[in-house]
Amino acid sequence: MARINKISITLCALLFTSLSITPLSHASEQARSSASQKSHQAKTDRKKRTSGSKSKTTAKAKTTSKKKTTLKSKSAASAVSKTASTRKTRSPALKTASVKMVQKCSVRKGHKKCVNEEVKPLTIADAHKARVQKAQKTAMNKLMGQIGKPYRWGGTSPRTGFDCSGLVYYAYKDLVKFRIPRTANEMYHLRDARSVDRGELQSGDLVFFRTRGRGTADHVGVYVGGGKFIQSPRTGRDIQITSLSEDYWANHYVGARRVMTPKTIR
Q1: DSSP-assigned letters across all residues of the chain
Q2: Is residue 114 flagged as an active site residue?
Q3: Does 245 map to a domain?
Q4: In a domain, 191, yes or no
Q5: Annotated catalytic, 164?
Q6: CATH number at residue 226
């Protein structure tokens, strides 16, 4: 009887142990499965978030690049349009400034006829040339006004008369920036004057001669064009215009100097 009770107690204990272990194992398995599901779900959510953020970044980058491209194209188009408009607006002004109309009239057989002619504006070279020509004309007018007046040694005034260098001094002293010397030889060696070949003589150039064999030059005149020069020759003679081709002056000619240039005239 006692042995039967021990067996029954042992069976009850085993049954109780199996019943208590089974729910625990089931619970642990369920906990493990739910944890794995949660981790898997978290990984999935992270992937979705990452892919979503990447797609958003890519979309933003594409949108930004498109905007930049559009802005660049618009700015380039506006620059081109501005340049075109500037050219359009400036071109008439430039044309107006470059072309000047002058009316010239002439009378023939009692009828007056006027014609409009285009006059181009002076360039810098033309302006310098015009200044030199004006100075040359002034010098020529002063010289021509002395024709017929007597030679006077050392003279520099229309009231008393002139010697050769005194006539040149009177004509140029107020037209050039440098000091005009008082002798023909000093004029010939002027640093501010430029040497000129005989074939390139212009109105206003100084022509030099050696008539007495003293120094490089002892006589000076002023070229007036056409192969002629104005001079105050010697005592007993008046101021006159003489041809350079005359034998005496051709044989005693030593050279020419140009004193009136754009750099030297006032």
Answers
A1: -HHHHHHHHHHHHHHHHHHHHHHHHHHHHHHHHHHHHHHHHHHHHHHHHHHHHHHHHHHHHHHHHHHHHHHHHHHHHHHHHHHHHHHHHHHHHHHHHH-EEEEEEEEETTEEEEEEEEEPPP-HHHHHHHHHHHHHHHHHHHHHTTTTPBB-TT-EETTTEE-HHHHHHHHHTTTBSSPP-SSHHHHHT-TTSEEE-GGG--TT-EEEE-SSS-SS-SEEEEEEETTEEEE--STT-B-EEEETTSHHHHHHEEEEEE---TTTB-
A2: no
A3: yes
A4: yes
A5: yes
A6: 3.90.1720.10
Number of domain units in the chain: 1
Does 134 map to a domain? yes
What range defines the domain where residue 186 resides? Answer: 125-258
Report pTM. 0.55
Residues 37-55 have pLDDT tens digits of 656 666 666 665 655 555 5
> 164, 189, 202, 252: which one is catalytic?
164
In a domain, 22, yes or no: no
- Does residue 219 have an active-site annotation? yes
Catalytic residue among 30, 219, 240, 252: 219
Residue 146 scores a pLDDT above 50: yes
- The whole-chain average pLDDT of the chain stands at 76
